[in-house]
What does this fold into?
Amino acid sequence: MAVATPSTDKALPGDAFLDLLEEIRGEILGGEMLRKPISGMTPEQIGASKRKKHLGGDANHRFEGERYLNCTDRTIRRMQLRKLVDEGGQTSVGGPTPSHPTLDRWHSMEFGLTEEEINQLEMTDPSPEQLIILGWWVHIQRNSPWQVALGTAMAGEGEKRVPGRTERFIQELDDLKREYAAMGVNVERAIALKTEHAPIGVDLEHAEFGANVVRRYVNTPELQDGVRNAFIMSLQGRGSRTF
It folds into this structure.
């Protein structure tokens, strides 16, 4: 596959570089969403998928903490701290929303997994593939320039800025609600994590935060190469993602 590359060895203007990333997204995903509500599965298939996802890890957003620790710009660091609270649980500071790993567990338990089973799965060694993927992702956040680490968010969160994605995501989420209701599960708990990732509200704010960092701070050919390469790797690794 030919992936879009800059036409110059100079850094592109911020918006032009963001456009390049979206051109790459189109080439790799062909119009599909990286994060989409997955429908058409039986309860048993969903449960099996979630067992695979929990295997070898707790789905915690420690990489957001790596980004925070990595960042040396005080203003951006404060904004990343707010994002870290959103992802790691507003309940930690008296807010209403639990952490994303907790919301993920709610979904799993609606499809037959128990707390004890999830705990056991998470204490099990990950698959070699998952170990490599997670290791690469943490390495990027910990050892890259902070501009690159924060810029990697454009692969997932950045797609919420693509025109038409909001309406498409919400329609697919509504379809998923109807499927879950027909299965007799607690729909609110089953879709809590997907709702949190909807391209509205706080997650859209996260997407704009990432875009603003890229516009202003990813301003050298080396930094843009770092973000572009991580962006490509993230999209090409989508086949390894579970539910």
The first helix runs from residue 14 to 29. Residues 7 and 30 are 22 Å apart (CA to CA). Residues 239-243 have pLDDT under 50 and may be disordered.
